[in-house]
């Protein structure tokens, strides 16, 4: 089985939720849709952009093979729900499975899901970047935030021509209050000292493997559809 993440531009959110699952091939599994919608609009302060327009929806799924001859039917279905899309082959690592607020089939998951699209900084080669992100930063992300789901999606390769140069796509679920309250986001409710410590630790860590202005980030509503 192989995981694919599709990023959709100008997607019809209602139609995705209503009809996508039934249109995809029978062998599709673990279908998840992430939407930039009104439920996360308050979190506009969390948005970061490399400069290009951000997708307004993601589709995550597993197929027996991401080979083009076996993926073409899925690509064609996805194309019907948006103006354009890109896709990446993914190696998934479930750092924190969502056991606190487990997804309910077809329903919006509790809180919100922050999607972060990482690119390779000029100061590092891929091996250096991977070692810092996976071997060092993972523990920081667990210890300094209120995330109750944390999925690291390592990009194996782009599956569409001219796809944005992402090397990882991170999904983290947070309490809804974290959309607007940094103390909730950094797991430091009513504790300013802990907030400042966690924030400083996080900023120091991300500065090691992320160059400012080179990543895309947005909050989303998460729906598991299979």
UniProtKB/TrEMBL annotation:
<dbReference type="GO" id="GO:0016491">
    <property type="term" value="F:oxidoreductase activity"/>
</dbReference>
<dbReference type="InterPro" id="IPR009799">
    <property type="entry name" value="EthD_dom"/>
</dbReference>
<feature type="domain" description="EthD">
    <location>
        <begin position="122"/>
        <end position="212"/>
    </location>
</feature>
<dbReference type="InterPro" id="IPR011008">
    <property type="entry name" value="Dimeric_a/b-barrel"/>
</dbReference>
<protein>
    <recommendedName>
        <fullName>EthD domain-containing protein</fullName>
    </recommendedName>
</protein>
<dbReference type="Pfam" id="PF07110">
    <property type="entry name" value="EthD"/>
</dbReference>
